[in-house]
Specification:
This protein is mostly beta strands. Helix content is about 0%, strand content about 45%. The chain has a five-stranded antiparallel beta sheet with strand order 3-11-8-13-6, with no helix packed on it. A four-stranded mixed beta sheet has the order 2-10-9-12, with no helix packed on it. The protein starts with a strand and ends in an 8-residue tail after the last strand. The model has no long low-confidence stretch (mean pLDDT about 95).
Length: about 170
Amino acid sequence: MRVLTPVPLTREAFATFGEVIDIEGARQIPINQGLTTRFHDLLTLDCDAEGGHPVVSVFRTDPLHLPHTVSVMERHPLGSQAFIPMDAEPFLVLVAPAGDNVNAEDLLLFRTRGGQGVNFARGTWHHFQIVTGRRRDFIVLDRAGPGNNLEECTLTGEAIIPEEAASPH
């Protein structure tokens, strides 16, 4: 059984799977008579396949109890999917490269530092949201429209997210 240990979420480490949504390093534009800073162009929303359109939702997610045996991953073949936390607490992001199936050896577990979000690239395998401790809300940007934009895959091999993965250290 593969035990997954989270690594810090960085733009470089996550680039294969999509984009990190983070104001650090973003282009800053002062607006509203200098009272507001606009952190500009944080992600590329991909949603026009087969006549799709962007939608904005809130996902309210209950904590996942750890340890957790990973059994199913999902992907969205017709558009990207972005998760932006409505608080500054870290959460876990489990991904695997695009392909026909998902092997336990291909999984990569990230931990956000808090305040970061993710934008999964079209076709990237990912686990549903992994929050620990308490219920959390996320703004979600994704695609709505015709076609099947959700595929699930049973994991080949065994992998577990241990209880220690919830610790921010």
